[in-house]
Amino acid sequence: MKVLVASDKFKGTLSSAEVAAAVADGVRRVRPDAVVDTVLIADGGDGTLAAAVAAGFELVPVDTCGPTGEPVVSGYARRDDTAVVELADVSGLIRLPAGQLAPMTATTRGTGELIAAAVAAGCTRVILGIGGSASTDGGAGLLRALGVRLLDATGAEIPEGGEALAAVVTVELESLRKQFNGVEVVVACDVDNPLTGPSGAAATYGPQKGARPEQIDVLDRSLGHWAELVAPDLKNSPGAGAAGGVGFAALAVLGAELMPGIELVLELVGFQDRLAGVDLVVTGEGALDEQTLHGKAVAGVASAAKAAGIPVVAVCGTNRLDDGRLRAAGIDAVYALTDLEPDVSRCIADPVPLLQGLGERIGLR
């Protein structure tokens, strides 16, 4: 029996690697003869960098700045001329000091610094995962790190953050265009929000970044002004509102292609090759729900495995999908922590033994 465990993280509880290790331990307890392989996956947000490194990419450390300007040691993953950059690891909510939200001033400059370092080192293809952003700056910080100058009416550089975009009068792109000649950018993007409006970056994602209703209005107007200066025809493009407007900056200035995050990650980790000889694929995430079916890692893994004719089961903390929805997604069975421990708080506090128990059940199926 050969089992491949390819689970996403259990957000806020366990990493992809920790989930895979616990499930694999459980399977081996009851099936010591089984060959259990693990592969780290992510949907383009946090965990993307780790998945690339685990798949053989080299981690290149870079000293950069976090979303509120504090020093951060991050890096990009490199193989040949391809670099993988994870926005969440440098400009994400997880990098806010003491978790202090900064909706009006947070910046994506650090992500741009990682891209700049990769391009300076000779990378000609950049894969950018943009989930988990702490800012709503329209990708302006990212672009400024790549040489773009944003000037106000006096000719001075504007401050960082989305609120300051309202003061931009001049956008100078020449330096970026020179250094990005011949560089391909592919963005892992799983949302189709436009840049502005009721379903735009500020209205949809601003609240989780700490923006109050009046601040959302300010940010939305600032993003609209930013779009009018850079590429007004792209502000309503699907995905332009991703990561606080990074999708817009990538499309409008970097000429990027937007692709589903899980598709990019599965390509990076060589998932198709890892399926050879496999009898069962185990995937999973913290909660199986309606979002799971729309571009999330579990759905991507299940689709790829089913296309190869391999049965798929999922592990999770809680399952909110009925059997019909699961089967339509290519998932044959679900094993939830709440099957073993109904108290969700206990599942969150000590998930590893429970996941090992689910691994035992999977090994005996």
From TrEMBL:
Gene3D superfamilies: Glycerate kinase, domain 1, Glycerate kinase, domain 2. Transmembrane segments: none annotated. The keyword Kinase applies. It comes from the Bacteria. One of its GO terms (molecular function) is kinase activity. NCBIfam families: glycerate kinase. This is Glycerate kinase. The lineage of its organism: Bacteria, Bacillati, Actinomycetota, Actinomycetes, Propionibacteriales.
